[in-house]
Structure prediction request, 221 residues.
Amino acid sequence: MNNRLSFAWKFSAAALVSYSMIAGLASSVPRLFILNETIRNLYFHVPMWFTMIALMAVSLKHSLASLRKPGLAGLELDRKAQLAAEVALVFAALGLFTGMIWARFTWGAFWTNDPKLNGTAVAILIYLAYFVLRSSVEDPEKRARLAGTYNVFAFVLMLVFIGVLPRMTDSLHPGNGGNPAFGSYDLDSAMRAVFYPAVFGWIGIGLWVVELRVRLSRLTK
Prediction:
């Protein structure tokens, strides 16, 4: 039964991503000033960030569990937290890359002094520090405790820098700093039919990759 459920959600994730990639390039989109065809990047750029946040939440969950369980069980959970954070950073890099390409065509530069862009860079640095911390401690149990505690603060700070602060000041990003969100003026029903499958599909792919990384880590011990 578990194998069937595992196959079902993985197949669904792959199918949703495949559908969103094909429909994202082939379906019609609103013709908006400045954005024009670049609005299709919504199907690729934004799901990367949703997936990153989801995987950071998975990493946080394992860290919290590892803090409550001593011994080998806690170390295994700490290892899962590390692997989930690693995959999350890959999606963060993809989100940053697709965002820079989008910014070049809509804002005229790959990087602007935008609070959400700067906040994203800070959040990535915070999680890179998580891995530096891990590599600086040799004792496994002490490393698990320190990394687990740090992960809690890292997740909260990540939400602050990419979700809270950009809404409190001027920002070019939709939905931040008084700038209306996509859904309020251009995310029509046709785009929603591609956007939401893309979000759920990529989150599923991210979870699948984490699962594969966990299995691989057990084989290489």
Observations:
- The chain has one domain: 33-219.
